[in-house]
Structure formats: structure tokens, C-alpha cells
Amino acid sequence: xxxxxxxxxxxxxxxxxxxxxxxxxxxxxxxxxxxxxxxxxxxxxxxxxxxxxxxxxxxxxxxxxxxxxxxxxxxxxxxxxxxxxxxxxxxxxxxxxxxxxxxxxxxxxxxxxxxxxxxxxxxxxxxxxxxxxxxxxxxxxxxxxxxxxxxxxxxxxxxxxxxxxxxxxxxxxxxxxxxxxxxxxxxxxxxxxxxxxxxxxxxxxxxxxxxxxxxxxxxxxxxxxxxxxxxxxxxxxxxxxxxxxxxxxxxxxxxxxxxxxxxxxxxxxxxxxxxxxxxxxxxxxxxxxxxxxxxxxxxxxxxxxxxxxxxxxxxxxxxxxxxxxxxxxxxxxxxxxxxxxxxxxxxxxxxxxxxxxxxxxxxxxxxxxxxxxxxxxxxxxxxxxxxxxxxxxxxxxxxxxxxxxxxxxxxxxxxxxxxxxxxxxxxxxxxxxxxxxxxxxxxxxxxxxxxxxxxxxxxxxxxxxxxxxxxxxxxxxxxxxxxxxxxxxxxxxxxxxxxxxxxxxxxxxxxxxxxxxxxxxxxxxxxxxxxxxxxxxxxxxxxxxxxxxxxxxxxxxxxxxxxxxx
Length: 566
What we know:
Layout: H1 4-17, H2 41-44, H3 51-57, E1 67-73, E2 112-114, H4 130-142, H5 145-148, H6 154-198, H7 205-209, H8 216-232, H9 239-258, H10 268-272, H11 296-306, E3 322-328, H12 337-349, E4 354-357, H13 367-379, E5 383-387, E6 416-422, E7 443-446, E8 450-454, E9 459-463, H14 466-483, H15 489-498, E10 509-511, E11 519-521, H16 534-544
Parallel strand pairs: 1-3, 1-4, 2-3, 4-5, 5-6, 6-7
Antiparallel strand pairs: 8-9, 10-11
């Protein structure tokens, strides 16, 4: 998720700005394997999913079926060495002929579709957050909503929530921005001292740790920067990477701080896409560019699920017989309900069995559109996997959209899994940023320092967030389906939930996310009370005998070829 490192830098930096003379020690835990999320505690001492153990002990010699997973996200590097061979190819579309060969309304949708695209090939990169959009929509309708709206009405209550999200944070941003400018100045001074001492422009924590000098200025700078690195939780991070992310965060903070109270966000969508954002039936818009210029998030998510296994390149994904369909609908900012609803329908109509949704927001003005799409996926037997969010909040108390609870109060969707983020045990047990909820988060999965594919053709990197935890669950779901393709979405969810395991080292209490001084039983953070476990899920699926008592409406699925290695 964007800015996780920057926020860690902020916390660590502010601490050090008030206590530079403290005596911290940069104590890294023993190295965490890059593929820790695929490993298991008994053999590797990490809170992994047991994927590698499952391949070694349960799946040898067994035949699998290819599974299509849709990733609704920001885009994907279609040329990446570890992903290009696992991209879904629409069998009914002739690439590049400018004709809608399959008649689905989307021309040349070879690898998926871009609902953020325009007819001229451009794409929406940045969009405002939903709270801000709604805040200015209500203001434009009523002028002064505080006096125009009935104080007892639902709309006034909604307006008050919007004010809390938009007005107060705007003021807070100004204060935070000023603080961050001071931190930036401290970073620059430390950078100058360290690069001058090392006679090199970049460095990492290990290089810093090796510095020993009587120059007290250099030693203070060393301690300052080591604490910054420590707070990121990423052992292999370079200073240049950290600095880049912090500057991006600072630029975003400046934009928020400078936004006047009466300045509505600029609507770039109208210029680029040109659809009627308030008409769900105006659905044939966008373009076929699922790559674009800002696909870090979607590329990283896709690699977790599907990076080619055992090809001696980069990383191994979870499933060795999977295809990725990219449906681009998530900008830098909050996704639109219309795009999400149509993206889900597109994925379902084109044969996806699992849909990963690593995004979310606190307001959903057209929830009924998304609800209808979720119900459609439910009817068609498609599992939806959604990230719980990164605010350290209780989803039982705060809104997080989309979700499986329908606005019309009909029965909750039973094809929907919401995922919180856990650590390796070495870098924390439960992610401090993860949302949780005994009623509204289903399961936890690895989501801290997950190493995966990133744009650039042959590049890889770490990222943290429930955005990384969701594709771990989506990947495990697809793995179970590969060997038990007749399972319904409901059966698949049951298997994942029933096979979830407690923390493997026997720990029962963890630090409550968002509350560093509070302990809570791990079992109280989610419905299942456990971590996703691929090994146990496959064992349970075997015991259920997928061919027995399976009652599902069969639907036509796109044919997929087995994944070729290399």
C-alpha cells in the first residue's frame, strides 16, 4: 500500500527530532526469508502459509486445472519476465484489429480491460478521495448544508460524517506538513553527513551500522537514520528508495494542506474518460491498456498470486497453474463505485473464478451498484477476496467499502472474504496498520514485507499492507480450486475459514492494531480467529471429496492452457 514506509519514517523521525541524544540500537531480528509467506513455522520459524510444504507433501504427481484469477487494481507490467506467460489471453479476441471480436462491448480486451482509460489512450492516474468528492457534491446541492438540512435527517448525519473526514483532516494536514518539512530538513543534513563520510550517494542500514568514527556529528546522523530504517521494517531497503517514498508522501501532504476549504477537486475523469459517472448503464468506456504508467500496486499483487514457479527467475507465486486477468479500476486516490461494479461484472463474465480486490474506502455513494455486482458474482459462483484496510481500525465500528453487507439488508454475501494482515513472527505477529473485526474481517494472512514483482521488466521489491494479504488468500483459494475445480465459492470460503490456524508458536495475545499499548486475543481480530493455511486447506478439501455432494450450477468457462515455465 502506498506511503506505509513514509508513515513509518514520519513516526520514527518525529520521535527522533525530540530525542536525538537517545541511545537506540538497531537490532534486526534474524533475517526473514524473502519468500516467508510461502513457508511454514515448523520448518522455517515464520508464520507462513505452508504453500511450499503443500507442493512437497500433498500435490506431487497430482493433476491440476488452470484457474483464472481477476485482479481489480492499478494495472500490471505485461512485459514482466515473471508474469508475461501467466497473463490471461482472451481466446475470442484478435489482438490489435480494432474490432470487438467477442461482442462484449470492449474492443481488443486481450489481457483484460482498463476502466480508467480514454479513447485517446490516456488513463486517469490520480483521483480525489470519495469523502472529498461527496463533501463538495453536498455543498453544491445545498450551499450551506448546516442550515439547509433537517438536523434529524439521514442526509445531515451523512454530511456531518463527511465534515469530519474532510474539514478537520485538512487542518491537520497543514500542521503535519509543517512538521514533515522539519523532518525533511533533518534528513537532508544527515544525508549530507553520511554520504560525505562514505563517499557514496546511496546506502542501506547494514552500511550505516558499519560506521565507526570519533566524529560525533556523523554518529548522531547514523543513529537518526538507523531509527528511520528500523521503523520501516524492511531490511533490504536503500536510502534512495526510502527518500523517494517520503518525498512522494510529502508532496501529497502539501497538496492536501494547500487545498482551500472551498476548492473542489479537479475532475480529470471527465476530460480523459468522458463517461457519465452517475449512470451505471453507460458502461462501454475505457481502453485496453492494462499496463499504463502506474502499475506498481497491481504488478506486486499479481506476482504474489501467480509469478511463474520454479523457473529460476525472480520469485515463486502461490499457484503454478493460474492465469491473471487485469481489470484496471484503481487510481491513485479512491476508486469509483461505477468502475468497481463494472470491473466485477467484467471479471465474472469472462470466466474468473476468484477476484482479488486490494482497495477500499470509507464512503460508497453508489453502493447499490457494487452490491448488485457482488450478488451477480455470488450467483455465478465467483469468490471475491477483499483487503480489510490499513488504518489500524475496527471494521465492526468504521465503514470499509466494498463489503458483503447489502444496502437493501438482504442476506450477507457468502462468496466474500475480507483479509487482515499478519507479520512473519520475526517482523511482528499482526501488522500494526491492519484493520480487524470479529464480525467484518474473516481471516488474516501474510502482509508485511512481501517480496514480489514490480514494474520494470525484471524488477522485484517489498511491499506491506492488507493489499498484499488479500492476494495471498486469493492465491491459496486458486490453488485449492486448481486441485478441486468443482468446489463452489461457498465451499471454497468454508475450506479457507475452517482450515485457518492459530498463531503457530502458541501465542494467544497480540498487540492490538492501532493501539500499541493494548493487548488483545488474536482470535478476537477476525471471524475465523486464524491465519490462512494452504497446507491445511488442501487437506480439508481432500477430505471433503470435491466430487461428492457438490451442487453447483455449471457455467461455461474460458479455456486456459497450462502455464509454461520460463
